[in-house]
Specification:
Largest sheet: 7 strands, mixed
Structural class: alpha/beta
Shape: globular
Number of strands: 13
Oligomer: single chain
Number of domains: 2
């Protein structure tokens, strides 16, 4: 590392790399993106041209092509890799990076099962390398406000949490999602799980039930999960046949309800409506409306100007600081321990639901 400039290799040339990882890294003055490593040469070339990244390397099999990567001249100068590939490709790519002495930041979910997670956590520890996971919604603006309210106990103890995910399958979805266990669930539910770990603690899956469209469709039609995060009761409801896409994270206090809208990065904070008189209902409706539209307009400007990163910018900044300082305690919510616990909880859901 020269003059505290961290040299980074992007692994993967898909949507998350091009719209989140690379733009967030390019905002940092102490980062140089040296090159891109991927499997699709045409896509990688286009991304390099678009982002003005000079180097690329095509690697079809991380396990067997390790020597090709190791001999690549520009890769020798890389300090860290940022992985944005499908989840079922994470394990060999993380292992490749760690074995070649590179710090690693990987997109959620960290890997596919607890065995893979434990092996890689051990390897990173042995090699004294930074190994972190992109748990970005921890650091989105609205979620930061919610986390502060929970952690300072501003409204007292959390009584329960409810998570709702509605997914429209006609939207732009990756081609590989049905190759994962429970399909879209395994790609997307990590966001819910790592937030529960932060707000409640270790997760225990109590009950689970899924309905399917067909035997060939790995993604359930609907999925319902009852769980606990520490002492907090949790209910998760996912509908993967919905006509619209909406994700909500709702936290219940004794006299307060807060719900977070993931896609719009909006937090709504409402008091109890007491005895549910018309005046109480109207007061809450007015408050909800002003909170929603105020944040919608603000975040709309950020989105149009390509500055709404949903916490990716903070994750990249902290990871780079960790690479420079070698201090993995700077932000615990992206550590591989939280990644491991997230993977375990997701696999517990798969075991409970079955198919």
């Amino acid at each position: 590392m020269e003059n505290n400039i961290v040299k980074i290799c992007i692994i993967g040339g898909g949507n998350i790399s091009s719209t989140r990882h690379i733009p967030a890294l390019k905002k940092l003055k102490n980062v140089e993106i040296v090159g891109i490593l991927g499997t699709n040469e045409e896509k990688i070339k286009k991304l390099c041209k678009k982002t003005r990244i000079k180097n690329y390397l095509i690697v079809n099999d991380p396990k067997n092509d390790k020597k090709i990567v190791e001999k690549c001249e520009w890769f020798k100068n890389v300090d860290a890799v940022v992985i944005g590939t499908p989840p079922n490709q994470h394990y060999p790519l993380i292992k490749l990076g760690l074995e070649l002495g590179k710090d690693v930041l990987v997109e959620k979910p960290m890997v596919m099962n607890p065995k893979e997670a434990e092996e890689l956590v051990k390897l990173a520890k042995e090699k004294k390398l930074i190994f972190n996971v992109v748990h970005n919604f921890n650091f989105a603006n609205g979620m930061k406000k919610l986390s502060k309210i929970i952690e300072t106990k501003k409204y007292g103890e959390v009584l329960s949490i409810c998570e709702v995910q509605l997914t429209n399958r006609n939207r732009r979805l990756p081609l590989w999602y049905n190759d994962l266990p429970l399909g879209l669930f395994y790609d997307e539910a990590a966001h819910f799980i790592y937030l529960l770990l932060r707000h409640g603690g270790d997760i225990k899956i109590e009950n689970g039930y899924a309905q399917y469209n067909s035997k060939k469709d790995a993604t359930p039609r609907t999925l319902s999960i009852d769980a606990s995060a520490g002492k907090i009761p949790v209910h998760m409801y996912m509908n993967f046949n919905a006509p619209v896409c909406e994700w909500y994270y709702t936290v219940f206090f004794e006299n307060r309800i807060l719900y977070y809208d993931f896609f719009k990065d909006i937090l709504i904070d409402l008091p109890t409506d007491k005895e549910h008189y018309a005046s109480d209902i109207l007061k809450n409706d007015v408050s909800r409306t002003f909170q929603y539209w105020g944040n919608f307009i603000k975040n709309g400007f950020l989105r149009v100007s390509n500055n709404l990163y949903y916490g990716h910018d903070y994750v990249m900044k902290i990871f780079v600081e960790k690479v420079i300082t070698r201090d993995d305690s700077l932000e615990k919510y992206i550590t591989n321990e939280y990644g491991r616990k997230t993977v375990k909880a997701m696999n517990d859901i798969i075991d409970k639901v079955g198919k």
